[in-house]
Amino acid sequence: xxxxxxxxxxxxxxxxxxxxxxxxxxxxxxxxxxxxxxxxxxxxxxxxxxxxxxxxxxxxxxxxxxxxxxxxxxxxxxxxxxxxxxxxxxxxxxxxxxxxxxxxxxxxxxxxxxxxxxxxxxxxxxxxxxxxxxxxxxxxxxxxxxxxxxxxxxxxxxxxxxxxxxxxxxxxxxxxxxxxxxxxxxxxxxxxxxxxxxxxxxxxxxxxxxxxxxxxxxxxxxxxxxxxxxxxxxxxxxxxxxxxxxxxxxxxxxxxxxxxxxxxxxxxxxxxxxxxxxxxxxxxxxxxxxxxxxxxxxxxxxxxxxxxxxxxxxxxxxxxxxxxxxxxxxxxxxxxxxxxxxxxxxxxxxxxxxxxxxxxxxxxxxxxxxxxxxxxxxxxxxxxxxxxxxxxxxxxxxxxxxxxxxxxxxxxxxxxxxxxxxxxxxxxxxxxxxxxxxxxxxxxx
Length: 445
Ligand code: TRP
Hints:
two-stranded antiparallel sheet; 1% strand
């Protein structure tokens, strides 16, 4: 049931933090966060979101990392080892969720590659003529092209995962994550100095607390969950490569902080620019792939800014996709005794194939229960499997493996975690209840 040699480990605490932050920071931060914020009233949503990240998100992430480091195994093996019985199902659900999420994540990741290139080949001209939407529509209706870029994206993902933990994931995250920060800062400087940017800043950063409703809180909960890569054993798997000396709570705080920073910075790129050019803040998926090219086209050096931005989104999506494939690969490596190379390539290929129906469904011709296949896959994973997984992970620490969790988080009693009891309490009650609410809300098809 396990590999025989010594388990690979992150080279350092900062290596782990950057890799886990690389998992958390993805399309969820740069594309989904601004659009959900735009649709939920701006500043007030941001306040609720940040509060939820640091109460519930922090607690569930701490639970996942503790489980993984104690068991030193993949999501399924960890539950088998620590408790056994039906708890392995939580890990199984996680592997299934990783498989499904990556199938369409790869499709959207492919768009970012397409847009890096298109920035230099006509996207700016189309944007200047108000036709960025047509370019996007034309692209996604050409399934062959979409699948081609999806394949490129998946190849990049597989390549990093098969290189292994220290050599692959950690090494690339160490280079890619700081690069992402730098590019974001450059884009913010550009965005904030546009005429009329102030209104966007106000919308984004001035909370109008009267706009907080039940729906706002639910949207914030769901976004926090997806953005932090929680609920499917991703952080269990990454935690399993963590050495015993690292203090987990401080690492988890930093991961939550970095993820939130990137989301907030992405909003600082998008809202000032959107308001400066009269673009609807709640435009949804179009905000990134349709609206921003028009915005860039009106900027001096448009192709450069546009390609930099989509390169940023590509980097973020890649480091997230790596973590999704790693969850699936680690399961086959630990539980089936597969080699890393075989696991990465075979599972990467299978996931790529499962993504093709999602790519095709962008033409609007492939629906399941009234939803495009891609949306249906996202619904099944994000609204059913992830909330259920997170619910059980919190319950596991709060009620089943509580003493083990205390030991693991305190490094066998050598480290004093001063909010230990508050954390256990959140895992017992607040987190399961809140997640259950998202779950039921999500089930409203
Ligand atoms: N968090 C990533 C994003 O924001 C996506 C992601 C990667 C994810 N791994 C995950 C989401 C595990 C849920 C669970 O884009």
